[in-house]
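Q: Could you write out the predicted structure for this multi-component system? I'm mainly interested in how the pieces pack against one another.
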Amino acid sequence: MKRIAHEANKAAIGVAALSMLVAMGPGAATRAAGAATPPVLQSEMAGVTPFAGLSAHDVAYSGMDGITDGGVRIINGDSGGLVASVYSSQYANFAWAPDGKTLYISETYWALGNRGTREDVLSIYGGPTLANEGEITLPGRLISDPKTHSFVLSADGHYAYNYSFQPAPAVTVVDLRARKVVDSVEIPGCGLVFPFGQRGFASLCADGSLAVSDASAQGKYSVHRTKRFFDVMTDPVMDESIGDPASGLALFITYDGWVHPVHLADTPKFDKPWSIEQAAGLSPATSHVGQITWRPGGQVPAAYERSRGRLFVLMHEGPPWSFEKAGTEIWVLDARTHRLLHRWAVPESAYLVAVTQDAHPLLFALSHKWLWVMSPESGAVLRATQIVTPALVGVRGE
Amino acid sequence: MNRLDNWGERVTRRLAGRLSRRSALSRLGALLVAAPAFPLLPVQRARAADAAAPAQKGTDFSHAAQTHDDTACNYWRYCGIDGNLCSCCGGSTHSCPPGSQPSPTSWIGSCINPDDQRAYLIAYRDCCGPNECNQCSCLNTDHAMPIYRPQANNHIIWCFGTQSFEYHCSMAVLVGLAE
């Protein structure tokens, strides 16, 4: 199609060029003949660059709330260049299908912008150009500063779990293959979603326990509570803890830097908690007033490299309850042996961290204006790219 | 709904002014202001401990707080605020700017007044409708809880029950003593 158009337009371009020379006067034609004649530029057809899917070194991030426009943007970590962008509402969440080719966005619109009929939808983008492929209407969703675990997929990408708070807490289960809502599971006193198994998910609860929801063979969900495993009043587990739907491993990280490894299942297995600060040879952080020490913090303060069991945590020096303060260092920990491997300084205090899941991983640190691409082995800054204020971040295979 | 909200707020203020330290009724007061729209909903109720926790020795925030400038992030009532201060947007600590509407729901914090070293219940209520004010943006997290404990969470857009869910700014309404 492009070649035909090119040939057909050649004559028209020639006529246009001759007309310009005539219009410029007799001297212009002579000057043009005396110089090396550049090739005639080829005509073009406007199109869309193909999208092959989220690559192993791509990182996707969403814009933040009502100050910055929403949207999901994809940056290639090897080049630092922008690969693609997709529209979203404010306070949207996103998740990628396991093959990285389909993007799901949980978002909310009103008919008249800030008022009128509300519509909560799960928007679908994919195909060869990452185009919109329709929406699934949701019965509700949480509107807040975005949280990674308020919209997540099952490991096989069959189901999406959408946390809803209106303000009754519930999880909407969406069959992505059938493209329909199949259930809404009430989880009173609990929130967020950490998937496990085929259709199971766990939610953190306000009393320090987990609510475990799983479906029967007939697809009917039941919910039960576990024991309390953390003290929510003095040292709560962060919303942005680590969940691995494929293995069911969750690393629940507290404000003071305690890591609670939990193997999610119908009957979860709770491993002994360990302290990030102790792994670094320091005394554990506490909630005692005036204790300035290293603590985890930020919007998305931790990332987990599954194959090697490495935990990357944004750390800062601060008092208790400073859990949203940006990190000045990234601590690299072996989550299996509870050892500190490295402490990398970040060029600018970072609020989000991510790591790719391939054999040659890249580490990403995001401030409110910059994406820093780093080596997870040496901590070297490989490149930097300017970004809009980020809310959430994701890589392929998470 | 507004009448119910107003009644709830009046009752809560009255109770907060009369109650003894850590009484069971002050727990009820926190609950009423936190969620006048919640009684029928399965949200776990606020515990007085949420609000009363920092009352003893002060907090890291209260040690650096001041009581004279309500357009600054370290104003004492803002110990748990996340967002734009309504005081910088045409409103005040307890009134929404013109063009916006106060949400009947809120979350509850407890802040220490450096002048008397006493802890007060603060209702962080959002004003809703206009675009985000984007003035005096503050992020204070003193005893702010994760989102799975919503009654003490400052990330949720608390615009339930208003004509618009568009977040504009946040107030810090004094409810009464938390002790």
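A: Regarding packing and overall arrangement: The domain at 58-395 of chain A is CATH 2.130.10.10 (Methylamine Dehydrogenase; Chain H).
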